[in-house]
Amino acid sequence: xxxxxxxxxxxxxxxxxxxxxxxxxxxxxxxxxxxxxxxxxxxxxxxxxxxxxxxxxxxxxxxxxxxxxxxxxxxxxxxxxxxxxxxxxxxxxxxxxxxxxxxxxxxxxxxxxxxxxxxxxxxxxxxxxxxxxxxxxxxxxxxxxxxxxxxxxxxxxxxxxxxxxxxxxxxxxxxxxxxxxxxxxxxxxxxxxxxxxxxxxxxxxxxxxxxxxxxxxxxxxxxxxxxxxxxxxxxxxxxxxxxxxxxxxxxxxxxxxxxxxxxxxxxxxxxxxxxxxxxxxxxxxxxxxxxxxxxxxxxxxxxxxxxxxxxxxxxxxxxxxxxxxxxxxxxxxxxxxxxxxxxxxxxxxxxxxxxxxxxxxxxxxxxxxxxxxxxxxxxxxxxxxxxxxxxxxxxxxxxxxxxxxxxxxxxxxxxxxx
Length: 418
What we know:
Blueprint: H1 2-13, H2 19-26, H3 33-48, E1 51-61, H4 90-102, E2 107-112, H5 119-135, E3 140-144, H6 152-159, E4 163-165, H7 175-178, H8 184-196, E5 200-202, E6 205-207, H9 213-226, E7 230-235, H10 252-265, E8 270-273, H11 277-280, H12 285-288, E9 294-296, H13 308-317, E10 321-322
Helix pairs in contact: 1-3, 2-9, 2-10, 3-10, 4-5, 5-6, 9-10
């Protein structure tokens, strides 16, 4: 296909595709899907080899948010039955982070709900960053605390933060349909503040909120212009109790096309599969590793994810390797840079549900937090379930059974899933 050959050539040269080419990727047929994955996979391997970076989320403060983001289970007025707790103490957060690092994570993402941090909140997070850094050599720490005020990014950087996450989430033209308590421009401003302070910018999107192909291309091109070092791609988890609870618009094939489009537009950037991969990609997750070079390990902010051991097995079985702390994630020409500092651009901005991980997301509805086929011996699994009307599902049918509220890890007395 001429389109794919052109996109591969552009990706290897870090040349921006046209909007028409990006839209054409999203419009490809299921018959062409494997060709699309193979083409984008060439670009991914050129810049990142077969390495997969693991990231781990710690929800420092859950729920109780005054913002009205429609996709979020922690939003103002949410009726989702999530965990709600105030700030974890530095030792509690450090203990939670240690579980993810022991499971192979290279970066810890510290997330707190709310519009943005007070100066006292920045002090709390700074103490937590220092505690994690003192106890874990080589760990990267990313903060995701909402909208930043002047001087706060600099203080986080001084405390040892490596990155700051704040997603754009959707296109500027439709942003007001998703959130009314802050603006798209507010998000852009926070990403720029993080970059100016010397923090690596992390910013991405949420797919599946009813947006058009044009909206998806718009937000990814906006991210490229902001030029973040990492771009988390979230797939909406329609959490009961939120305004978007009935928005089941994604198929595994659609998710793969979106990831491929992001890779072509942002060829040399860390593309991270974030919240919702277990719910929407399901058994197609290994194919997505040919497009993205980064994932979250274990659970998310308010929902459960695939068991950590299942993530590691999936990576190994697909022929990839976990990126070590001694390996540099970004290509040499991007290493040490941030937004707007790389020739030819990259991708970037900021998120809000958590370091690229839209706060919902995850399978984990099985007892031990596993997914189909990962249940403990003797406990049964999806693969062994009776083939009745409930277990044999039609293509495109909502998988509400895969959405589970997190009940372990940070904010609880139970061990995390990592």
